[in-house]
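tl;dr need the bound structure. longer version: we got a ligand (pyridoxal-5'-phosphate) that a collaborator sent over and nobodys looked at where it sits. i said id run it. heres the input, straight from their email, havent touched it
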Amino acid sequence: MPRKLDLTAIRAEFPILARQVNGHPLVYLDNAASAQKPDAVIDAMANQARTAYANVHRGLHTLANEATEAFEAARETVRAFLNAPSTDNVIFTKGSTEGINLVASALAARIQPGDEIVLSIMEHHSNIVPWHFLRERRGAVLRWVGLTADGSLDMDAMRAAIGPKTKMVAVTHMSNVLGTVTDVAAIAAMAHGVGAQLLADGSQAAVHLSVDVQALGCDWYVFTGHKLYGPTGIGALYGTAEALDRARPYQGGGEMIEIVETDRVTYNTPPHKFEAGTPPILEAVGLGAALRWMGQFDTAEVAAHEHALYTRAREALRGINGLKVHGEAPGKGAVLSFSLEGAHPHDLAQILDRYGVAIRAGHHCAQPLMQYLGVSATARASFALYNTQGEVDAFAEALAKARKMLV
Ligand SMILES: Cc1ncc(COP(=O)(O)O)c(C=O)c1O
């Protein structure tokens, strides 16, 4: 039986949510940037550090074995979370950014000038810049796929962009600005039709959807722990056995080797082949705890709760003169990006902060999308499982006050 979505009990497990900010109760609506951490995560890391900490994999002593067990148990938790076939498919990274850089760097050797990489216009910089590296260094050509009027990915344009020169299609599973959810399975089928690989950026989607990498048919999937109520400095990269076997190691160092001699080196098997150096051990334990904590709840119930928060906020904004919401794709996630004529998003965010309301303003690491939308920045409220309808109302009230001051 999944745990009931009792917001009072849930919020009590997030000590930070009891804070006051500028004399007001904190209303934390910057969850798409990073989510707050429950006691379960904080305690799991602290307990590991207090009772069973040592470096992993190398020791012949009790603490090393216990730390290794906890670290590898976290990998199994990630495997189950993604429905990956084996823990060998799960590489620990320091986050989505490192995962995508790893894939791009592994692909580099196979890129010839003129080979194409297909990206959607709503990608985060971490799913853009590593591909620019291949453009600059290997002569790859980046092909961009736009959106339809409501902010959905233009699937006809995607089909047209993928062709015989495509080597990689890299697409977000959920936009951090628009909330748009993409049809990764359909895009993967298109990519595979021309022998290309598909990388899905699950940084946002993994928080709000149930992810099944085998059903999605992706070659690569990345996510980042700190948005999933876990710690910073940890994330995961899923790769199929075939993709991982073909990929060159990313960084060299301890753990990723089989034999090192003065004139040759051979490599360990995945996942270790891609995990050079001492990994983020406590962070992996924290990520495992976060996924288990989330796993108590029914994903569909959480998504419905977050969607109700989004809808209430969307309704509150309706009818405000000069206010434009960016992204209204059907089935979108609980991310509300907007612009208000005559008010800079940074000013809005600063005034909301005076009322204890934390939202984000800026380009959200998605400058190509900003150019596409014809704005330099947006304001963004993003919702998490611990947010309440009362907080949405506090946000709407603070926004009304900010509007009075600025417009
Ligand atoms: C869609 C998307 N991709 C990638 C990232 C990068 O995640 P990280 O900075 O944790 O590597 C983010 C985080 O803001 C994101 O929202």
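gonna send this back to them w/ a short note. Residues 95-97, 124, 126-127, 172, 176, 201, 203-204, 224, 365 surround pyridoxal-5'-phosphate (CB under 6 Å).
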